[in-house]
Model the fold of this input.
Amino acid sequence: MASGRHSDRYLEKFNLLQWPEHTITVCQKMTEAMRGTNPQTVAGPTTGGVLLAFEIGRQLGTRGIFAERDEEHGGRSFQRGFTLAPGERVLVVDDILTTGGSIRDTLDAVRAAGGEPVGVAVVVDRSGGKVAFDDLPFFAATEVDMQTWTADECPLCPRGVPLKIT
Done:
């Protein structure tokens, strides 16, 4: 998983995102929960956040953009000609929240581009409610309780249980 955490279970976001009608339904929950933040743009991190930003942007009547890994400077940035106006209100969306790293990088990219983050929405919160984003409004379409460990703490690694890397 992108967080680098280990777990005895894995959530595959594309099992949902492969089905447009189900993805639309989940995005409707996210859209309605965050509509009051009045975003002008919706942004998500690659990869799953691309589809979510597009659909939630469509439902809100805004554009949907994405932040890619910035190999030169680290973190994420808006590339491919995406720009934000100074103070542009941006809702950040993502698929599965574990540590919040991808979302924090996207929030940083919004700020670096001159935008103002107004909220965060995710499909699944698997952090156990332990992750917050600078007092921004937060919504998770669902929560899943899944234990995770750092590589050093992982009880599966000494037993030789193979990791699933995606």
Observations:
- Residues 100 and 131 are 7 Å apart (CA to CA).
- The chain is about 25% helix and 25% strand.
